[in-house]
Amino acid sequence: MAERKEILRDKKIRFDYRSAIPSLTLIVALLTEILIPNHMDAKYRTLTNFKSVLITFTVVSLLLLLISIFHEKTRNRYVRKGWFLGGTVVFITMLNLVTVKLLLLPQIYFPSINRILNVYIEDKNLLLKCLISSFTLLVEGLLFGTVIGIITGILVGWSKNWNYWIYPLIRILGPIPSSTWIPLTLIIFPTSRGAAIFLIAFGVWFQITILTSSGIQSVKQSYFEVSSTLGATNLQNLLFIAIPDALPSMFLGLFNATCSSFVALMAAEMFGVKAGIGWYINWQKEMIAYSNVYAGLILIAGFCYLFITVQFKVRDKLLSWQKGVIKW
Amino acid sequence: MVDTKSQASCIHSHTGNIRARDISKEFIRPDGEKVIALSNLDADIKAGEFICLIGPSGCGKSTLLRLIAGLNEPNSGDIKLDGQTIKGPGYERGLVFQDPTLFPWLTVHDNIAYGLKVRHVYKHKKEEIHEFIQLVGLKGFEKSYPHQLSGGMAQRASLARALVNHPKVLLLDEPLGALDAFTRMNMQDEILRIWKERGTTMIMVTHDVDEAIYLSDRVFVMTPRPARIERIIDVNIGRNESLGRQRDSGDFLQLRSKILQILDFTGKVQQPEFYL
Questions:
Q1: Could you give all domains of chain B from N- to C-terminal order, each with its CATH number?
Q2: What is the model's pTM?
Q3: Could you report the per-residue pLDDT of B161-205, keeping only the tens digit for each?
Q4: Which of B90, B93, B95 is the closest to A226 by Cβ?
Q5: CATH number of this structure's domain A124-322
Q6: Numbered ranges of CATH 1.10.3720.10 in chain A
Q7: Rounded-to-integer distance, Cα B133 and Cα B138, Å
Q8: Mind telling me how many Å the CA of A242 is from chain B's nearest CA?
Q9: pLDDT given for residue B173 in this prediction
Q10: Which stretches make up the ABC transmembrane type-1 domain (chain A) (predicted)?
Q11: Distance from the B260 Cα atom to the nearest Cα atom in chain A, whole angstroms
């Protein structure tokens, strides 16, 4: 019997119970949604967005289940996420129960999932505009901050003279929260967009400068010695030894910078701009439209996730030589 | 195996004699105390010679090597390579440390190619890389990263990286110190083979008396306080077919006890710091 089990495990075509967890939980969620009626006092109780989404996901999960029986690679990846996906669906189902089904929470602050989903349909165009606006603002701020940060980081880390003049400046200016600069930036920059970009770039610049310079300063002296005896000039030592060796540290700086740039983005969108996710969330909060606030929050979370994921992919590609050394 | 190109470089590398006159070197310790690493040292090394520097720690042997490499400057006196005073590091003086110090972000191939690339001669000499990879027995590992290599393999790669520039002098700072006994003996023969093939002047720092006798033409026995060359021993033992010496011959053992005696020379009771 044990032998047969072994053979089954080695087979390419195999069913793993974990790949069925998402489908099962989704079916339970769908049944809950269909069979339990919405509370009589709930607002917008006739919306069916959640049901459509659940049906779509159930179909997708069943397809994945089918594929993962026959395709080993898909199975391995899907199975690992099985419990997590199932848990997420259970959580959402419970949310569905306590909000629109049983109305245990005040519905003004805790709107039903249907209403949150409905925001994406009703505010589709505005949200898209906001997303594009936030995206361009963030990318421009990150780009400026990163480029200037890398340059100052290298100068401070490499040259004693630059270090003497710039380092104290970094120490004084760096830790000041971006948002405290708002009054000043509004005077200095002709457009509020320029001010917003500056605020984001500033935080990014600080993080990247610090980690680039410390990365360069902590390069092992013996690397430079070997490189010099192989015929490298000073500039070559910087380009081919110091910078590659500091790259992991620079990426850590970029990661920190990306995280803090989202904070700066929210602050920057509080003034001047007429679009953006941060602006949208703020505006909707003032109108006590909490379903819209949640919709915005979910968008920014996804946005953040996407940004970091792309960054990790680039990093893993560039730093393949030290796979598994740094983990986040 | 030996083509015209490497023969030509053999002839070229028959320059490489070192002449050090009256060199002194002091260091200031972090606590402000002055440490004399070398005082009034003279040394002559002929082109194509294999020299071992031996002595307890603190006798200035690594300092001497670093001065020849140009990584430090002497406080007084000067060192000449083929009549030219050494000023700063240069590719004609290759250096290998005890720690292989391969650049972890480069593959074995790119590590070895590094010297050619920074000197802008990579395009003409690309093929030589493979020659050197073959020479140190790393064929098939070209695309590996340093962290994937064993200690012995990493040290071979680091040797090849220094050799690719055809240095006149190869400076070896305890290159085999971190290896196990078997790898160590293999590497000794490997170094001798490379020495024979390329005719490079070899200057090697070691703690190991046996290693010094096995490899070198002359052994510089150094002593600390004051740091200087106490005695120069000619190793007048015939080399066997792998160019090393018969390790258990009477001459070998006699020379060994002679060197050990010099190292323990002063008659003062003192704890020997060297490893045997």
A1: 4-37+55-263 (3.40.50.300)
A2: 0.80
A3: 998 888 999 999 988 888 888 888 888 998 898 888 888 999 999
A4: B95
A5: 1.10.3720.10
A6: 124-322
A7: 5
A8: 11
A9: 92
A10: 131-311
A11: 32
